[in-house]
Amino acid sequence: MRGLITAAASGLVFGIGLVVSGMTRPDVVVGFLDVLGTWDPSLGVVMVGALLVHAPLRWLIERRRSPLCSDAFRMPTRRDLDARLVVGAALFGVGWGLAGYCPGPAVVSALPGGPKALTFLAAMLAGMVLVHRVDALAGRPLARVASPERRH
Fold it and tell me: Where are the domains of the chain?
């Protein structure tokens, strides 16, 4: 239960941060990507700010014996690149550039019923279902969050 509360609180803080920073507005994202037109650097400023907060906190967190809300750290273990990852990343980037949304801001923007965000979310969920069905038909295992645990 504690993990669920922590996840919900983290999501709420993240959503509020997206709204406050303007990252739920597709025109900000598209403006950042329009380097040859009317370039809007505000997304870059938000990214740098996120890194400035993340870097020292990660350094501190990695020195802990265990996380606050779990029994162990769970970190991704795969290091290889394959065609599926590259194609998926390219599709993500193209979709982000065309729609001005990525998953987090789309969820926040869809909450008040924004039709563009709802359409984006529906397409994203349909794509996720399609990939899982194709994987199941091909006999590939479903992607999983890292299971090996890292303990200090």
Answer: 2-150
